[in-house]
Each structure stands twice: as C-alpha cells, then as structure tokens.
Amino acid sequence: MAKKAKKKKKAAKASNGKMSMKGRIFMIAFVLLGLAFLPTSMLLGVGMLPTVVVFFMGNRRNGVRASTVAAMNSAGCIPFILKLWAGENNFEASMNIIMDSQSMLVIYVAAAFGYMIDWVVTGLVSSYLYQKGMGRMMAIQKKQAFLVSHWGEGITGKSDKGDGG
Length: 165
Description:
Blueprint: H1 2-14, H2 21-36, H3 38-47, H4 49-56, H5 62-86, H6 91-99, H7 101-151
C-alpha cells in the first residue's frame, strides 16, 4: 500500500508544472550543445519544423505519427548536415543551406513522406484488422449454426413464447 502512495505522490509532484532535476539538466545540456554547434542547430531548427508541428498537434495517437515524421524529416536533413560539416561549418554556410529553396524542399518533402507513410500504414493496418474481425465473426456464426443444427433452436437463448419468459 505504501508503494501506491509513493507513486501517487510522485505523479502529483511531476504534474504540478515544475521540471524535475533530470529535466533541468537535460535542458541546460541541450541549450549548451545547441550554442556550441550553432550552425548545425540552426539547420536542424529550421529543417525539423514539421516534426515540431506534428508533435504539438493534438490527438492521442500523435506519438506514432510524430516518430514517423521525425524519422523521415531527419533523413531529409542528414545530407545537408553532412554538406555543412564537409565544407565550412559556420553561420554563413548554414544560412546558405537554409536559404536554398531546393534544400528546404528536399527536407520538407521528406517530412511529407513521413506523413504519407503514417497515413498509408494506418489505413492498411485498420483494413487488415477489420478483415480479421470479419473472419472471426463468420467463424463464430458458422459455429453457432452448427450448434443450432445439432442441439436445436433452444440453445440460442431466444424464447419461443411471446410473454418474454
């Protein structure tokens, strides 16, 4: 019982809006790394905007969609990050990549492919599960018909009398 009380206390503590110590350390490290690698951070900040948008859009299954879009979006960013690292890794080179419409088009189209993958896979999985459920329903109806043919209509639980009893 004490474990449950501790869990509830931890959950209440976490939900009061304050960031935990681990969260603070992670945030500070994230900001410091972003400043240390500013050209790369700028490119990723602009390039990964579709991922940020899908992460903050609201419904409960966005975790899957966000990870799909993030994977494809980062795949679109990687060639330009490598181009930045291979050449001059400075503010101007990063801005040149960001201002190049072709590079941004490649990055954002890759994110759009993430949306498309999510859409197609969701449709395929739901169709498969629907068909599987229909097959299961047909098997149950077939089994019910077999039982009725061997045991009679009384096994269905339906009353032959009109008075409900």
